[in-house]
Design a protein that fits this description.
Belongs to the aldolase class II family. AraD/FucA subfamily. Strands 4-3-2-1-5-7-6 form a 7-stranded antiparallel sheet, sandwiched between helices. The two termini are 31 Å apart. Helix content is 40%, strand content 13%. It has 8 helices and 7 strands; from the N terminus they run αββββαβααααββαα. The chain is globular, with a radius of gyration of 17 Å. The chain has a single domain (3-218), classed as L-fuculose-1-phosphate Aldolase. β3 and β4 (65-67) form a beta hairpin. The relative contact order is 0.16. The protein has 229 residues and is of the alpha+beta class.
C-alpha cells in the first residue's frame, strides 16, 4: 500500500539526518496521498539507520492505523491537523534543528532580514503562542496543531511553509515529503543567518520591495527562476 509514498517519506526522514537537522531518533517526516486521504509517517523511536520503507506507518486522517506493525510518530496528531487544514500540502516535517529551535524557545518570529529568507518565506516565520497548562497536560500533540492553525489564521501556509512552536521547535511543510524536508533545511539556514544578523545589528531591516522581488522571482505565475519545464 502506497509504496512510492513510503519510499518518499523514508527518503525525507533520511535527508533530515544527512543535513544534520536531527539527533538520534529526534524529528519526523510524513506524506499524504490526497486521493486516498491516507498519511505515511515515520515510526516512533526507531533509529534512522535501521529504517526501511516497510517500517513506515500508514494512518487515516483520524489517526487510525491502516497498515504497519509499529507505533507512528508521537507527533502524528500535529501532522494530521496540518494536513486537514492546509489542503495544498503533501508533506510535513518536524525537527529540533539548533537555530530554528533557539528562535522557538525564545518565543520569537524569525524576521525577514534578507533575500535568502525571501526566496522561501514571504514574510516572517511565525512563532505560536505558548500552550496553556491544560493543553500541555491534556492532548498536547493535538493542541500543538491547534496553536499552529491559530497562528496561521491570517498567514498563507503556502507562502510561509514553516512555523516555530513556542518553547518547542519548528515544523515545515511542502508539496511533498521531499519538499517539506527541503524547507526544513532552508529554515535552519535562515534561522542561523537571522541569529547572526541580529547579533551584529539589532536594527537590521530589509525593504519590502527587495523581499517581494526575491520571493516572486521563484513563486507564482510570473516566476523567472530556473528553467522552463
Amino acid at each position: 500500500m502506497l509504496e512510492q509514498l513510503k519510499e518518499a517519506t523514508l527518503e525525507a526522514n533520511l535527508e533530515l539526518v544527512r543535513s544534520g537537522l536531527v539527533l538520534y531518533t529526534f524529528g519526523n517526516a510524513s506524506g499524504i496521498d490526497r486521493e486516498t486521504r491516507l498519511v505515511v509517517i515515520k515510526p516512533s523511536g526507531v533509529d534512522y539507520h535501521d529504517m526501511k520503507p516497510e517500517h513506515m506507518v500508514v494512518t487515516d486522517l483520524q489517526g487510525n492505523i491502516v497498515e504497519g506493525s509499529l507505533r507512528p510518530s508521537s507527533d502524528l496528531k500535529t501532522h494530521l491537523e496540518l494536513y486537514k487544514a492546509f489542503s495544498g500540502i503533501g508533506g510535513v516535517v518536524h525537527t529540533h534543528s539548533e537555530h530554528a529551535t533557539a528562535w522557538a524557545q525564545s518565543g520569537r518570529d524569525i524576521p525577514p532580514l534578507g533575500t535568502t529568507h525571501a526566496d522561501y518565506f514571504h514574510g516572517p516565520v511565525p512563532c505560536t503562542r505558548e500552550l496553556t497548562d491544560d493543553e500541555i497536560n491534556g492532548d498536547y500533540v493535538l493542541s500543538t496543531g491547534t496553536a499552529i492553525l491559530e497562528r496561521f489564521a491570517d498567514v498563507d501556509p503556502l507562502a510561509v511553509p514553516g512555523v516555530l512552536v513556542a518553547g518547542h521547535a519548528p515544523f515545515t511543510w511542502g508539496t511533498s515529503p521531499r519538499d517539506a524536508a527541503h524547507n526544513a533545511v532552508v529554515l535552519e539556514a535562515v534561522a542561523k543567518m537571522a541569529f547572526i544578523t541580529v547579533l551584529l545589528n539589532s536594527n537590521s531591516r530589509v525593504s519590502e520591495a527587495l523581499l517581494d522581488r526575491h520571493y516572486f522571482r521563484k513563486h507564482g505565475a510570473k516566476a523567472t527562476y530556473g528553467q522552463n519545464s
